[in-house]
Structures are given as structure tokens and as C-alpha cells.
Amino acid sequence: MNEPVSVALVGGLYGSARAAVVDRLLRRHPGAVAIHHVIAAGRVERVVRDASGVLDHAEVPANAHGSVTQDLLAQLVRHAAAGASLLIIDLWDSIEPRPVAESLARAGQLRLVCVHTALDAPHMPLDICRGDRLAETGQATAADDQRHLAEVLARQIEYATSLSLHGGDAEDTELSTAVLGHLVPHTPIVTVPDTTGPILDVHELAGRVDPATAQLPADRQTGEVTTVVWRRLRPLHPGRLFDVMDELVTTTVRSRGRFWLANRHELMLAWDAVAGVISVADTGPWLAALPEAAWDLIAPIRRAAAALDWNPIIGDRVQHLVFTGPDIDRDRICDLLDSCLIDQDDLLPGAAAWACYDDPFAPVLNLEESA
After folding, report:
1. 286/319 same-domain check
2. What is the DSSP string of 261-272?
3. Which residue, of 207, 235, 269, is where some domain finishes?
4. 302 by DSSP, 3-state: which?
5. Range(s) of the domain holding residue 286
6. Would you place residue 142 in the very low, low, confident or very high pLDDT band (cuts 50, 70, 90)?
7. Given the DSSP bridges, would you call strands 254-259 and 225-232 parallel, antiparallel or unpaired?
């Protein structure tokens, strides 16, 4: 290849919506080629097509980890060398776009220009609330795939650089648009993805969703859909927070952000919940917990995010959690979380008393630290 060929990555749980986007791209770009892998019942099939129809349909050996990604990259390079004007990756239903985008970046021979998620307008507002596992919906990628449908849908939506809505009537589109306006207010909803922009930097894409730098939604009310932003500076008592988490998660649809526990004041913790399923993870130290000499090793986007939160006493430590759902009781959410903050008379980081708190998060977080 002389010049890197542009690659459009199209994903989403809804096959008919993805197909509609891929068809529009093939018609708009003569010479474009779309590559799709079907993953089902332990088998992987590759389908390659252009605007005229199917060019190749073959089974791919799936007995090695990463074999699908390897086959995808090989096909992209092959069709780029053959003169394709645009390469379109039509991801299978429950594949998340981030690992694929980062694999493309590591390959170094291709030019990722958009990450697009196609959505079914009647089903998306319902599916983001569903607690089903992918295995129950027939969309698991492997026998041991334990992911939930709603968490995959959320990642597909939040990582994308553009979105599209398909099917349904004007009312479905209006509701889906309102929900997306809360989940990803800065992501455009388009008819056809733009493939003329600059190459995407996967580090910047990651920065949009990673807890330390995520572009979290703002406080908002649209009809019945509400987003509540909770920002505080005092640390959280681990036991009190653990006791209210179930109510916080089950009375909202999507919540995420970063927070700190008093007894783990050096660590930034990530909160990620959707459809009643929550994950709490250790994302590493706050910048305030690092020696200044180490800051040069920190990505600029992380330093910029820390600067926005900086406090002269506690540094970049902050409670920043965002909750979205229908008919949320804003006061109840804030009161619950405020009741979990440590008392006003013990505010300095590192107070000896904090280490004595019972920590119900220990089984998860200590396991992560020792892994």
C-alpha cells in the first residue's frame, strides 16, 4: 500500500441497523468493501461484500485466541492492497468497538476514521434497562461470555464517534434521541457516518470513556429522562456507601464516574453500573498521591483532567458520579450519597482513623491489587 486506506468501524447489537449503515456507505463510496464476521455456536464465518453483493464467504478457524481479529486484520490489509477505496468493518452484534479500534492502531497500516454505532430506535431505550446476560439473548461470543446485554450496549454507545437510529416511528426516534442526549450529549446522531475526517487517535478515544478523563454527562432533565450529577470533595465511608449501592443502582439505569474511599485515599476508584449491574474497580493512584517527578510519565489528557478538579488540600481527589434514568428522585440520590460522606471533623487525607473502617469492598479491590 502507498497511502493508508480509510477504515470505518460500524458496530451495534442490532444487525438490521448495522446492515443499513453499511449499505449506505457501500453505495456512497464506489470501490468500498465491507468485512463481517458471524460468531455463533462456536463457529466463525467471514462475509466480504461490496455494493454489488457477496465477494467471499468462508469459515474461519476459531480455535485460537484472537483468531477473528487476526483474520479481520489480514482481510483489511488484503483488500487495501487490492485497491479498496474504503474498508468497512461490520462488527458482529456483541463485539465492543474499543478492542478492535486499538488492534487496528497497533497494526499501523490502516487509517481509522470513524467508530459508528447503529441503533434500533424502538428497542434501544428498553435494552439499556435490561439485566439479561448475552448468553440468554443468543449474542454471547463464547461459552464463558458472562457480559450483560445492557453493559455491552452502553460501551458501544459511549465509545462511538457517531450514532444512527433506525426503525420505529417518530415517537421511538424522539425517545431514543432523548436517552442518547443524556448518555452521550456530545456524540452526533447522523444518517451516514462521516469518513472524510482525520485519523482517529485511539488514546483520545479511550480518554473519552476512561474513568479518570471521561466526558461525563451534565445535570439534565428531558421529559421523563433525568441525569443527576453528584460532585463532592469529602471522602466516602466504605461501609455506608456499600449499604446504599443497591438502591442507587436499581433506581437508575446508567451510572458511572470516579470516587474515593476514605480508607483508600490514594486510589481513584471507578463506578460503572447499568441495568442493575455494578462494577467497582481500582484505576490506579490519584495524581496527588504521586511524587511530582512521576507526573511527566502521565498522559497530558489525564493531567488536564486532574487540573480541572484540583484542590489545594486534596489535589485531584473528587467524588464525581452521574446517574441517568426515568423519573429519578434527584433529592433521594443526593441525600443517600451525602449520608455516606465522612464526618466534617475528619477531613485531612491519611487520617489514621480512616484505616480502621470496615471495608466491604476489600474482597474485590484487594483481589485486583494482587492480580
Report:
1. yes
2. BGGGTTEEEEEE
3. 207
4. helix
5. 220-370
6. confident
7. unpaired
* Residue-level pLDDT at 66: 65
Give the residue-averaged pLDDT of 129-135: 93
Same domain, 225 and 197: no
The amino acid occupying position 2 is N
Contact 193, 10 (CB under 8 A): yes
At 64, list the grid cell.
Answer: 485460537
The answer as to whether 212 is a domain residue is: no
Question: Angle at Cα 215 formed by Cα 210 and Cα 220, nearest 5°?
Answer: 135
Residue showing cell 466526558: 215
State the residue for C-alpha cell 464465518. 45
**Total count of domains within the chain:** 2
347 or 183: which carries more pLDDT confidence?
183
N-term to C-term CA, the chain? 42
Parallel, antiparallel, or unpaired: how do β-strands 53-60 and 43-50 relate? antiparallel
Q: Which stretches of the chain are DSSP H helices?
A: 15-28, 67-81, 97-107, 124-127, 134-137, 149-159, 170-183, 202-209, 238-250, 300-309, 330-338, 362-370
Q: Is residue 64 predicted with pLDDT exceeding 70?
A: no
Tell me: do 281 and 151 sit in the same domain.
Answer: no
Element (H, E) at 333: helix 330-338
Q: Residues for the chain: how many in total?
A: 371
* Interval 311-365: pLDDT, tens: 999 999 999 999 999 989 999 999 999 999 998 765 555 567 788 888 999 988 8
Count Cβ atoms below 10 Å from residue 154 Cβ, excluding itself.
24
Select from 148, 176, 207 the last residue of a domain: 207
Judge whether residue 371 has pLDDT over 70.
no
